[in-house]
Amino acid sequence: MASRHQVRQSVISLLYALELNGKNENFVDEFLNEKKIRNEAKNFTLSLYNGVLEHLESLDERIDIFLNENKIHQIGHIERAILRLGAFELLYTDTLAAIVINEAVELAKELANENAPKLINGVLDGMQKAEK
Fold first, then answer.
1. Which GO terms describe its cellular component (predicted)?
2. CA dist 108 to 37, 50, 75, Å?
3. Exposed, middle or buried: residue 130 (CB in 10 Å: 0-12, 13-18, 19+)?
4. Sign of CA dihedral 15, 71, 67, 114
């Protein structure tokens, strides 16, 4: 069974692929089958992925507030996917903010450039503090 960290990695991959290749519903099922993400983990993956897509515009607007001189469309694809997932979890799920931010920073360390963890942490931390 896939861990929650692996689920989040998969959501980042799906968001990245969507941005590069456009919407392809078959791809999502094929990807999840290939990664052996099934049952509860599949449901969690799809809830995060579909949630980000459902709230994409409002997520981007919220993220832009905390990006300072940049805007969401000016940062890298992976960083954008991580921020969108993190923002979705902060704003629309019951997952503790510390867990969301830590996971996003870890994903940035694994998948993005060397400056990404600091950027991700700053944006999500600012967003979380603004929500209180």
1. cytosol
2. 21, 21, 13
3. exposed
4. positive
Nearest to 120 by CA among 81, 69, 92: 81
- Taking the whole predicted model, whether its pTM rises above 0.85 is answered as yes
With CA atoms as reference, report the closest residue to 78 among 116, 35, 125: 116
What string of DSSP letters covers 30-77?
HHHHHTT--HHHHHHHHHHHHHHHHTHHHHHHHHHHHSTT--GGGS-H
Residue-wise pLDDT for 37-85, tens only, equals 889 999 999 999 999 999 999 999 999 999 988 899 999 999 999 999 9
Model confidence pLDDT, tens digit, residues 4-36: 888 999 999 999 988 888 766 678 888 888 888
